[in-house]
């Protein structure tokens, strides 16, 4: 119930959110004070961050890792953002994690002619301990090339 309440608050658009007292709680022996207390527990675990994670959240990190020339980093960030924006409606990319899309878009912005081996070198050089799956990054990289 606390997560439902938090979700409703996050998605509130024009103040049409029902108050906690309007939820049918008596059947479950839960009161509004308990829900509010649990909301604080959930928010604490999330470090009070309930925003949606997008590829843009990872762009600066990947540009700093992949772009060796500091003087071109601003341009690379802008180019990466443009690539991400151009493919947002492609359903075949939507099942990939935002970090994978950001890594692939950054690599496309830097070099459109990377081989799989070169992609692996870039990804394995990251201190992410296997967080990015090379097959996912390669798929996204080549799909982004195709779409741009």
UniProtKB/TrEMBL annotation:
Keywords: Cell cycle, Cell division, Cyclin. Residues 53-112 form the Cyclin C-terminal domain. The keyword Cell division applies. Residues 2-51 form the Cyclin N-terminal domain. PANTHER family: CYCLINS. This is Uncharacterized protein.
């Amino acid at each position: 119930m606390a997560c439902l309440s938090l979700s409703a608050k996050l998605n509130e658009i024009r103040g049409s959110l029902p108050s906690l007292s309007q939820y049918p709680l008596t059947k479950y022996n839960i009161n509004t004070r308990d829900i509010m207390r649990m909301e604080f527990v959930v928010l604490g675990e999330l470090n009070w961050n309930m925003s949606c994670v997008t590829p843009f959240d990872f762009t600066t990190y990947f540009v700093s890792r992949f772009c060796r020339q500091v003087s071109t980093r601003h341009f690379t960030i802008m180019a990466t953002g443009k690539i991400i924006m151009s493919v947002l409606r492609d359903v075949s990319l939507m099942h990939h994690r935002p970090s994978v899309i950001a890594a692939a878009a950054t690599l496309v912005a830097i070099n459109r002619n990377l081989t799989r081996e070169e992609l692996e070198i870039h990804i394995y050089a990251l201190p992410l301990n296997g967080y990015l799956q090379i097959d996912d990054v390669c798929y996204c990289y080549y799909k982004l090339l195709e779409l741009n």
